[in-house]
Give the backbone structure.
Amino acid sequence: MTRAASKTTTAQQHPDTTRRDLAGKLVVEGIGTFFLVFTIGTAVHSGSALAPLAIGAALMVMIYAGGHISGGHYNPAVTLAALVRGRIGLIAAAAYWIVQVVAGLVAALIVRLVLGGPAASSSLDPSGRPLTNALIAEFLFTFALAYVVMNVATSADHPNNSFYGLAIGFTVAAGAVAVGGISGGVFNPAVLFGGLVMGLFGASTLVYLIVQLLAGALAGLAFRMLNPNDA
């Protein structure tokens, strides 16, 4: 999500260099998404009240670890925001999406292996709430997450800042606390698919994918409208 990592490569670069650069970014995206989903599965299963903090912290440290290489998206909705914002090309974005989803699924399978079965289905699954409420909650905090990422990690007004990982991680932690009981606090399609495998969500939550991607796209558009000179 840092500017140096998220700028698209130029046509003058050697194709082999471009492929190597993209491969490195994909490895980083895979590692970061894996540990995010793994932390979610194990933290939620623990039943600890500190689970939202653990999840936000995991995202934060993975962003600091890999943001300078891949941009540290770890979230297809954030990658879509970066695409709309103009910080990543379509081919690279599609590769990010594949790696993020696959990494989330692998993490989910390992969580099930470690825990000996599916996590408690009541941990994050919204219960006794209308689906509309859950969709609104998912839209708002997915938008907030992608909007924060675009502003703290890609804005020319924040060159070489040191707070972007903390801001992004705490956005997720805040969302998990605020609306976790309403929607499950997903905010990430890779987490959604991983959560389905782990037994954290029911099949009805697949509809979250629509509002998460819509929120990511709108966050990218909002950044462009508010920062017309920040190409």
The chain is about 70% helix and 0% strand. The first helix runs from residue 3 to 6.
